[in-house]
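Give me C-alpha cells for this 288-residue protein.
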Amino acid sequence: MFNVIESNMIVPNLHLLTLEAPEIVPEIQPGQFVILRAEQDGERIPLSISDWDLEAGTLSVIFMNVGVTTGKLAALKPGMQIPTVVGPLGIKTEIENFGTVLCVGGCYGIGSIFPIARALKELGNRVISVIEARSNYLFYWEDKLKQVSDQLLYITRDGTKGYKGHVRRLPQIIQSVGSKVDRVIVNGCSLLVKLSSDVTRPLEIKTIVSLAPIMIDGTGMCGVCRVSLGETTRFACVHGPDFDGHEVNWEELAQRRKMYFNEESVPLQTSRCEEHAEKILAEHLNLE
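Here you go.
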C-alpha cells in the first residue's frame, strides 16, 4: 500500500496527488509516468510524473477529474492509502544541451513539463516555458516554472493573460524569442500536442510530444496504446510516451481514443446515479 501525503484541487478540476513511494522515486527521470489504482479492484490509469522528492521518497502527479477512477483519486485525503503505484514507466525525455528550447504545457501538462524544463536548464539550455489555458485562473506552478526558465510566457483563450488565442500563436512567440529555437517539447492533452506539431512543422523545428493514448498494462503486452509513426507502429508505454510530433498519425490516434467512449461513459453515469440515490436515501433517513 502507498500512503497519500498530499491531495488537493490546485485549480478547478485539476488535482495534485503526492504519494509516498521510496522504492520508485530514485529511478524517476523527466518525462516518465506511473500507473495507479485508486482501489484494490479498480482500473489502472497512467499519469505523468510532475515532480518528486528523493529525500522524502515522494512523487507527485497532476490529473484532471474526468471519470470514475480520477474521481476516486481526487477524493483521497492525506493519511489514506492506495494499493498500486507502478513505475517509473516509459522512456525518459531526451535531455541534452540543444540551445534554446520551447517547453509548452497545458492542463496537466503544465505540471509534467516542469521536470523537463528543470533538467534542460541544469544542462545549460535557454529554456522558454509557454503555458496555455482557457483563462488565467487555470494557471498553477508559475513560481516553480519561473525558477527553471529563462522566460515564462502565457497563452489564454480569453486573453486574460499573455497572448490571446491558442497554441497557434506559437509561431509569433518563436519569432519574439530573439534567437533560433532548436527544439519544442509539448506536454498536455491530445489537441494541444497536435496543434503544436501542426504549427511547428512548416517552421522545421523538431517537436517532441508526450502522448497519452488509452493504456492498460503499461508493459507493451496488451497493444492498446499503439501509435502509428508513418509506416511504423510503436507502443506509447514502452517506446514513448515521447514521440516526434511531425511523424504521428494524429487522425488514427484520435479515432483510437474514441474506441471505448461508451464503455467509459457508462460507469461514470452509473456512479453519478448511485451517488444521487445515496444522497436521496440519506436525506430520507434524516427526515425520519
